[in-house]
Design a protein that fits this description.
globular, mainly alpha
Length: 385
Amino acid sequence: MKKNFKEFDYPLFITYFVLCIFGLIMIYSSSMMVAVNRLGQEPDFFYKKQLLNLVVSSIAFIIGVTIPYKKYKKHTWFNSILIGTFVLLIAVHIVGYSPAGSGAKSWLNLGILKFQPSEVAKLAFIIIFSVVYSNKVAKGTINQIKKSLLPIYIIFIAALFSIFLEPDIGAIIMLILIFLCLTVASGMSAKGISRIVGFLTIIGAVLGGIVYLFSDIILSEKRLGRIRAFFNPFEDETGFGLQIANGYYAIGVGGVQGSGLGQSIQKLGYLPEPQTDFILAIIAEELGTLGVLIVLGGLGFIVLRAIIIGIRTKDTMARILAVGIGSWIGIQTFINVGGLSGIIPLTGVTLPFISYGGSSLLILSFAMGILINISMFVKKERKIN
């Protein structure tokens, strides 16, 4: 362990740490009025909760760094991750709850901890596919989809269907995109990947048909409103287009230099829940282009670093795992920024390490620990060779 920690990836850790602290500061700035006016709490209500989340997440990070990533290959670990993930995904349909205004029964309340099982599923399936794919590569059966990979694909589809029933469309989109990145990183042939893409297209068409047939149940007024707001947010500026329109105002007012830390106008009740998925709009308004570049630059560095780690290693599992974690952070960032900027419809996906939220920060911190663990192994591997 001491030898491994000599190869600790300090640039990756410092970037992760700075993003978390920066997010903590912006959560305090963006949530003060929400805490006081809407909840009748102290101005630092969300700040204190996120600080506690960060302390717990730091423990998760340390655990992720300490556990050698190869241990996930062991049957006991692998089965525990797989079974535990499905227990959580099923439990959310039995004892889960829907936060006010979310429209999705996607949360579990364990008393001291409230979290989304779909967040756990993202990292769980990155680990699961990295183990399965690396085993198939070692056996030379990575391209034998029907004979070799069909069981794990059925399990994955079952998980997607469970999340679809919540419904959490954002999580489904993310899991499918992460899955495709993992498949490419595995070294599967282009023919095999095209078959998988075709299969996913068929599943998408089936799910689309289900949505159409049961649109009254699945497509709530809120979701339909978000779709309409995507095409023209100013058509219903005080209704479903409120978030996007006020997000645009925040970005426009901030300009290059920003209005100054704590000086946002949109957080004074114009932008609902500014500390969550629209926190980047407040950053743009208060800190301008520089603030946005700090966030996107830090997240971009983590994604790029993860891909480089994956390229440098000769271990297949390490490559798939590193690329999977990097693609997860990159995809989640794109979906968040894309919804804010109007490139894609809003999905309620948080900005990694920046937005308020305990479950997202906890799982992402554990993933960062795993990534640094892989980085230490890769550095040691390169020194030996």
